[in-house]
Amino acid sequence: MTTENTTTGKPEVTVSRNEPEVLRQEIEQTRTELGDTVEALAAKADVKARMRDKADQLKEQARARRTQAVQKLHSTRAWATSHWSVIAIGGLGVLVPITAVVMTRRRSTRRSRRPMRRR
Predict the structure, then answer these.
(1) Is residue 22 part of a domain?
(2) How far is Cα 86 from Cα 46, in angstroms, rounded to an integer?
(3) CA nearest 3: which of 22, 24, 29, 17?
(4) Which residue range forms the structural domain that includes residue 96?
(5) Are residues 51 and 78 in the same domain?
(6) How far apart are CA 78 and CA 35, in angstroms?
(7) Vertex 24: Cα angle to 21 and 26 (nearest 5)
(8) Which tens digits make up the pLDDT trace of 48-103?
(9) Alpha-carbon torsion 39, 41, 46, 47, what sign?
(10) Helix H segments across 2-83?
(11) What values do phi and psi take at 35, rounded to 5?
(12) Structural domain tally of the chain?
């Protein structure tokens, strides 16, 4: 079995009875790690697949936002239907002052347009 010496940084070889079995396990572990690394690198290099995954992710996000918007619309519509009198009074509260301002301005501009009478 091989271990690294902490003072020199060089590998040390220790002999044990089941060294061939330990070596086989280390080789198998190294193969597994190497296979995972190669698989990860291949996935990173596959730009088409990454773009497809990103597009799928964005589509799913758009669907979720659409669903939330539709639910919000339905709840707002339900609230507005049940509170129509509040909305009507609020609308009048805005409409009446605006109408008063517009009518007052029209009257003042009509007066200023009249020709002056001569005496």
Answers:
(1) yes
(2) 58
(3) 22
(4) 84-113
(5) yes
(6) 57
(7) 110
(8) 888 999 999 999 999 999 999 999 999 988 888 888 888 888 888 898 999 999 99
(9) positive
(10) 19-45, 47-82
(11) -60, -45
(12) 3
